[in-house]
Amino acid sequence: MTRKSGFATFVGQRWAVLFLCLEVVVFSIVGQGFFSLNGVQIVLFYGTSLFLLATAETFVIVTGGIDLSVGFVMGFSAVISARLVAAMVLAGMTPLTAIILAIIATLAIGLLPGLLSGFLVGRLKVTSFLATFATGGIVYGISLLLSGGGETKGVPDLANVIGNSYFLYWARGKGFSIFTRPEVARGTRVIEILPSMLVITAVVVIVAAFVLNRTRFGRHTYAIGGNEDAAVRAGINIRRHYLVIYALSAFFATLAGIIYMLEYITGKPDAGTSFLLDSIVGVVIGGASLYGGAGTVWGTILGCLILSVLETGLRMAGVPTFDKFIAVGLILILAVLIDQFFPELIHKED
Amino acid sequence: MGYLLEVRNIVKRFGGLTAVNNVSMGVAAGEVVGLLGDNGAGKSTLIKVVSGVHRADEGKVLFQDREVDIGSPMDALAMGIETIYQDLALAENLNTPANIFLGREKMKKALGILNVLDHEYMHEESRQVLEKLDILIPSLRNKIRALSGGQRQAVAISRSIYWDAKFLIMDEPTAALGVAEQKKVLDLVNRLKSHGIGVIVISHQMHDVFSVADRLVIMRRGEKVAELVTKDTNADEVVSLIVGAETVRK
Amino acid sequence: MADNSLAPAPFSSRSSAMAIFGRNWAVFFLLVMVVVFIFTGKNFLALANLQTIIYSATTSLLLAFAETFVIIARGIDLSVGYVMGFSTIVCAGVIRDLYATQFGVHWPAGVAIALGIVAGLVASLACGLASGILISRFRVPPFIATLGVLGVAYGFTLHASDGGFPIAFLPNVLTEIGNGYVYYYNPVLHAYSFFAPPAGTTGPQIKELVRLFPNALILTLVFLVLLWHLLKNTRFGQHTYAIGGSMDAAVRAGIDTRRHLVQVYVLSALLAGLAGIIWVFQTGQGNFVPMGSNLELFAIAAVIIGGASLNGGKGRIMSTLIGVFIISIMANGLTLTGVETFWRFIATGVILIVAIVVDQLFPDLL
Ligand SMILES: Nc1ncnc2c1ncn2[C@@H]1O[C@H](COP(=O)(O)OP(=O)(O)O)[C@@H](O)[C@H]1O
Ligand SMILES: [Mg+2]
Hints:
The structure holds three protein chains of three kinds. Chain A is mainly α. Chain A has one domain (31-344): ABC transporter involved in vitamin B12 uptake, BtuC. Chain A has helices at residues 6-30, 37-62, 70-90, 95-109, 111-122, 128-147, 157-163, 196-214, 216-226, 228-233, 238-264, 275-285, 297-316, 323-341, 343-346; strands at 166-171, 175-178, 190-195. Chain A has a three-stranded antiparallel β-sheet with strand order 2-1-3. In chain A, β1 and β2 form a beta hairpin. Chain B is an alpha/beta fold. Helix content of chain B is 32%, strand content 28%. Chain C contains 14 helices and three strands. Chain C has helices at 16-23, 25-40, 47-72, 80-99, 109-136, 142-160, 173-178, 215-233, 235-245, 247-252, 257-283, 295-305, 317-336, 342-361; strands at 181-186, 191-194, 210-214. At the A-C interface, α6, α12 and α14 of A face α6, α12 and α14 of C.
């Protein structure tokens, strides 16, 4: 390989960060109110589903696979949790109990699609693309069945209060309060800091990053993605590993679905459909290789930030949101081309 | 001496490493030469110079007594120098005739206008070349995937022969085969001699080499350390030359 | 090697009856399904229903054929559904702009339609070229390259349709062709004619008309034969198999693999574009297919159910035909039996898994 100039190397290595900075600068200039506490929170808030789905995708992509079902699983769990809450409330439970029980039950049910994919990939040696597509189709069909194709009604407003609450509130004279909006006179400004759902997402993402980066499980994940045969010979139980990987992926997607239900007090099968493209793009921009063995959760989060800044920024700048798809497509291609030209730089193992 | 293929004073360096250092050797038509040496001795690098994968830093290659410039594998193929790689380069999803004719398919006119593949012709030609070389394949319509390692090897060799290979290079042809299969491939190599084809065989299996090669060239650390006539030597002598236990015979 | 003691081939041969069944399970499955629907469905065998199946399978078939070539070459084209949508909007948009009166231009409908078709094909050609060049020259994995093209095509589609509004005010002749039949028979007048109802057919008689051979069927047959020929009997087809089976072998056999891959993705995009144009003819408007309908996934599923493998080198036009019919007859039959359409997703997923597992049990060696 010919040597690249120092500058090119510098840019090639950090292009994602530089690109993010560039985006922020541009949108701060052209977008109304982009560069503000609120703007930042909107970016991050839009990002919650994306962060979760892309984290799910990261684990699978590091093993050399792809998970096409994440969006469907998200819709599935949104529908399931909404149906469960509605049914329990109807049965006479208090909204809070119903919501808590429904979340627990959905988290358990949400693992099933992951286990199915994991079984197909690990045990039956089905290509991940097809295994997760089949699972996705089945799950999507079940969501349509349960929801009758439309939105699920009957979720109590309490869900919305939880879903749109903030971690911290600040009001003049009342100081900070956690989770509960301070009682203030009409017209008094309350500063809202960190949406609760974002905090939950952040905690999950940090744990996920730790698992992939610092645990034996994470090491084995890279090993399988790098060379499956070698991993088998090294004594890694890859059947079980795939089962856990796809279950984990389904878990993150399920969480995204539950958060969707809380935010919109409804569940619909298509809740996550539009995130599939973005989540894969986020992972690839973040430096993962679709051939497996490379990629980090933090890289993925960086990739997702680029996308969510783009989405929010374009919207605030008054550009029709559908132009976003053109941008996302181009960025994806750009990311892979840069990856071709600087392979050894970007695929450095953490 | 009338060599079919000759290399003179070949030097090939990779950065600071000299993989092949001033090696000369020749192979006559109808002759099989065994190329021996430990791992990393430079055997593969030397033959890659001939098959057009690498370009030598110094030295020259002569084919049919003329100096030739082999810049790419295609150049080598055009001259009739074929290399049977260990991984064979067969499309496993296609059958034997399709592989023999891959990239050079025979077409015919159907209904007077349509240019279509002439499956019958390719099948018949394949059958004939296999027959000529005394190779038995259960059914030519079977995909390569259904063939054993030795049969695949035979298909790869027949392809070369069909397309008029004059010189065949085989890098570890029997490495992946069972004992019975090895014997068949070696028999086939022996038969190639009678067709006037020159062959270089690289192998680790002393037995293989002794059963087919007329002469042996032994390399160590990039240099040629000996050239022997097979019937005047024995395995012990060769092994000690390969590992360098015996003083170099000039 | 004259003796017969060949080493055993590297697979254990199952009983041949089982193997035949295993390799052709899709055909048997299709037959069984049809029989079941005949007995349980309300109107499955009705001529009208059979023609509906073919009519609605036309675009799915073209997408699946597109995917067949790509998958045999060991690639994947995620963009077919969106390229189809792109071509729909471009084609309909051009026809409207040239034809519709409110823009003050009065091109004859025929010219407007012809130019619309060309525009749709050019738009899809551009998509195919982009994918093909990214994949062959820049070595971008097909999955990513076509995903990128998907995004760009989708964006342009939304842009050109102002966010997804159907493009209307198109000439009626579109649907007359798109939903027309080759043969009409008027039992009242005892008259028959081709491509349009017999002259003198009055309003009430329209109901009585016997219509045979939808235009869509003829078109489907033409493409079926053409693509079958291309894959089976030409160098192009042979090299597509070779590239999918072993890129290495193809390169060493002197095949220009880069150019070939570009051609494969261009072919795929053109077929998808054609599906988009047919969609304009069938619906009489430019209504792009929205995200979430997963057209490409059904196309891929049909190809795989037909017996192709994502590992490349394998697949046939006729098998894809069976795969498409399994999915579309299932959708049709389930609707007629009163089962709701979501079963289409569930059933496709299940059949897909069956297909893959069966494929692994019976490697095809012939
Ligand atoms: N493409 C290459 N780049 C750098 N070094 C190489 C290359 N090919 C071979 N070598 C080195 O050249 C030496 C000879 O290798 P090779 O010809 O493959 O040996 P042999 O085939 O006899 O085992 C080895 O040290 C090997 O590492
Ligand atoms: Mg070697």
